Amino acid sequence: MMLLGLFIILLLAIFLGIPVLLAIGAVGLVGFILNDLNPAFFPQKMFAMLDSFSLLALPYFILAGELMTRGGLSKKLVEFAEKVVGHVRGGLGHASVLANIVFANVSGSSTAATVAIGSILIPAMKERGYKGGFAASLIAASGIIGPIIPPSMTMIVYGSMAGVSIGGLFLAGIIPGLLIGAGLVGLIFLFSMLPGFDELRKTTGRFDLMEVLKSVKSVWVALLAPVIILGGILGGVFTATEAGVVTCFYAFVVSLLIYRTVKWSDLPGILVNAAITTAMVVGIIAVAGGLGWLLSYLDFNTAALSAITSVSSDPTIVMLMLIAVMLFMTMFVESLAVLVIMIPVIVHIGSQFGFNPIHLGLLMVFATQIGATTPPVAVLLFVATSIAKTPYDQTIRCCWPFVLTLIAILLLCAFVPATATFLPHYFLGQ
Question: pLDDT digits over 28-41, tens only?
């Protein structure tokens, strides 16, 4: 009853509009007091959660993403994507997917990708006749590619808390990320064949290889980023954590010295924004770590395992149940908070059933990102809808084909583990 009560209070607090960080912190502290635990233990557990070398990469990747975004990279990526796929049916929609795939190489945040790409492409799509809700749904769905394709802040959080190789998780996200892109491109092309979607049949002209090559000059920096990051990790030049510092330095040089779109006077604002984002993410990790310790103290891991095995002991069914739980919870609670709270349970159940930790981690991160596009609490839909300046109910009506496509790709990755494990096994032997 205590566990049930804590979850009910947490959900009520979030629904009442209390910030996630404060809601989790308050519930965790109250839980400590109600169980006659010294309240001083709560901040100790928060600090213990943050006492991780892997988490040091977070602020650097966040700052790198902020530098590249403020440096105008998103606009250059959109122009490049239009040159590559603008001649195809639904070209502007395809361009949004391609732009997100490339942008994911320098920013591991789905929200940053949605804002950066959406602020440029959503108005352009509306000018071409796209419905605001459709455009917002497409941008939100393609935005989740950011945390799947490396580098990924969410992968760093999961790996550091679950004790899983971050380099392995980075590699595990490459194929699923490309599959998401392919799935969304296929869906857009399918829509272009249906009546009532005449705007998707409009193109931006013929394919011009010379124009594509010219546009590569403006985005080669983004295309080179994954080579530096993954090449350095695989080559043993630096660790996944140190890769954050390298990426940050790379973004700094590119934005201030190569593109010269960021001025020295812009740096204070960029640093403040990056610090705010870092504080928010790290704060959620800290308080969720304290609450997670309390849940373990109350044998929540054992209770969850017993509940699942009472339904089935088949590993496939258990995997699907974990995915379903994550998808359901992220419909109501912010995805990062759900992931951080559930990681101890996920790791416990995964070890009991012998799941590949990298495959399991990829699936859990993927599932929580889908939750950011699933009503009622869908952060990416909120962001994209505000950019589109369209009624939220219109976006909800349009989002379900995209959500179902993402779920289908998630299930494909679940039933075909090689989609996540092939590259880590090939390069790292994991």
Answer: 888 899 888 888 88
